Structures are given as structure tokens and as C-alpha cells.
Amino acid sequence: MGIQIDTQTKSGLPQRKNGKMKNLVLFIALTIGLSLFQSCSMDRDRSWVNAKAPTIPSLEMMTLPQTAFNTFSEVVEEDRVAGTFENFTHAVFSLLAWNTVVSIQMALPTAAFQAATETDPIAINDTTFEWRYTFDDVENSDIYEIALTAQISDDGNRVLWKMLASQVNGFQDFLWYEGYTTLDRSETSLVLHHKPESPEPYITILFNRDVDEMSIRFTNVIPQALEEGSFIKYEAKEGGGLNRAFRLGESVENDMDIEYNKDLGNGRVRHQKYFGDTNWHCWDADRKDIDCE
Q1: Neighbours of 266 (CB within 10 A)
Q2: Residues 6+ apart with CB under 8 A from 262
Q3: Higher pLDDT, 86 or 29
Q4: What residue spans define the domains of the chain?
Q5: Quick check: 66 pLDDT over 90?
Q6: Which DSSP string corresponds to the chain?
Q7: First to last CA, the chain
Q8: What's the pLDDT tens digit per position in 140-179?
């Protein structure tokens, strides 16, 4: 009996050791495999960390170019004399009025938007990025906390923008800007919302750029407002002739077209409400009224 027991014991012990060794090897293999799987999964999940954020829309894509007004800058009220400089000066003062309105309304939100260029974005995922920063409105002694978000569209052709503003000790999470730009930066469509207490859409901005042409249009879109639908549009193209233009729109009778050469300064204006006809009224390089050819 003792011998039999010893035999079973000797034959059984190595079997248990082999079993333990196999289990240990299997455990180690599973542990390593799971670690590699988790590592690969984490690498895939965090692949967006190094994703490149889209470029913030340039100032050109959001504002009227002030250089466009250089042609009209040296004008005084006394020059507005019928039969002398009437055509040119009528165009000038109409443009200055529009430019003043647009510049005043757009200055603060556009500056807040552009301040994002001084901040590094944070990648939320591989298609969404966020800029968070503080913007100081020195003139009005206000401070804003800005959250600008950019999301690349599913088709990869557009960037969807949204800017939220919170005033320190004031309003919170006001949607100031929203819209999109194309990735090739040839097109922009943005909506400026009015103000925190009246957050409806206020002004739309449409920017287009081709190889040798560009245009930007600002339209008042406040619902049921007297100014709803009124707009100013600037156009530029390469080459000679009348290579710059403004289109001002309020109504059919009060629409105005202005075309001019940016270097020479000659041009023409068409404004039915003012002139009483739909003809072009021209001026030469000295800004004097001339007959249109």
C-alpha cells in the first residue's frame, strides 16, 4: 500500500506542476495580449491629439476692405455741387454712410473672433477644435470669455464655426457668430447675432474668392425690421477698366450701383431714387462729372 501510494504521488506531482506551468504561461500570454490590445485601442482613440486645426477665417473674409475707400477718401462737403462733382460725391457719401454702419456694428464681435489667432486650439476629437480665451474690450471696459469652436463637416469640405461669448459679471453663453468656411478658404458664410437680450440673426456675411475675383456681402436679416434685406456688397477683379464695385440695396427704387477703377479713380454710379432714372452717371479721373460713353 505504501509503495502504491508513493508511486501515485510521484506520478501525480509532475502532472500538477505541468498544469500550473501551462496556466501561468496562458495567463502571461493573455495579459500581454490584452495590454497590446488596450495600447492599440488607446493609440487609435487618441490619434486625434495631433490632428491639425483648421485656419481661422481671415479679416478679409469678415470685413469690408478699408482700402476700397481710398479712392473716395479726399472729399469734402463743398465739392458736392450739381454739375461739377455731383456723381462722384453722391457715391462717396452713400458709401461712407454704409461703411460707418457696418464698421460700428461689426467691430467688436469681429475683433473678438480674430483674437483667437493669438491662442492655441485644443483638439476635442479628430474633427472638432476649440479656442478658449479672454477678450478685453478696452473702449467699453468690458471683458469677455470666448469659446470658439470649429468642426470639420462629414464630407471634409467645410469647417463649421460657432462663437459663444460670456461677459464677466454679465450675460453668459451668447451665440455671437456661427456659420462655415470651406477648407480651401474660397467661401465663407457667417451669421452675426444681434445682442444677448435680442439674440436673433442680425447680419449675414457672404464671402467668395476665385482666381481673379472676390466679393463680400453684408445683409441685414433681422426679421420684420424696416432694414431687413438691405445690403452692401463689394466686388473686386483683376485687370483694368472698372475693376471695383459696390452694390447697395434697400429696395428696387433705392438700389445703387457704383463702379470705378481703383488706381485711376474714374467711375460711374446708378441710383434711380436720386437721379430719377436708371442710367449710369460718370466721373473722370479728376472726379469731375462727364458724359458716360
Answers
A1: 20
A2: 68, 70, 71, 236, 243, 244
A3: 86
A4: 2-45, 59-290
A5: no
A6: -HHHHHHHHHHHHHHHHHHHHHHHHHHHHHHHHHHHHHHHHHHHHTGGGGPPPPPPPPGGGTS--GGGGGGGSS--GGG--TTTTHHHHHHHHHHHHHHHHHHHHHHHHHHHHHGGGGS--EESSSSEEEEEEEEEETTTTEEEEEEEEEEE-TTSSEEEEEEEEEETTS--SEEEEEEEEETTSSEEEEEEEEETTEEEEEEEEEEEE-SSEEEEEEEE--TT-TTTT-EEEEEEESSSSS-EEEEEESSTTT-EEEEE-TTT--EEEEEHHHHSSS--EEE-TTS-EE---
A7: 131
A8: 899 999 999 999 999 989 999 999 999 999 999 999 999 9
Q: How confident is the model at residue 46 (pLDDT cuts 50, 70, 90)?
A: very low
Is the predicted pLDDT of residue 27 greater than 60, yes or no? Answer: no
- pLDDT band of residue 72 (cuts 50, 70, 90) is low
Average pLDDT estimate for 12-28: 50
User: Among candidates 254, 233, 255, which has minimal Cα distance to 245?
Assistant: 233
- The position carrying cell 479656442 is 131
CA distance to 45, 81, 89, 90, 103, per residue, from 86 (Å): 67, 6, 5, 6, 25
Cell numbers found for residue 48 = 486625434
User: Quick check: 107 pLDDT over 80?
Assistant: yes
Residue identified by cell 430719377 is: 276
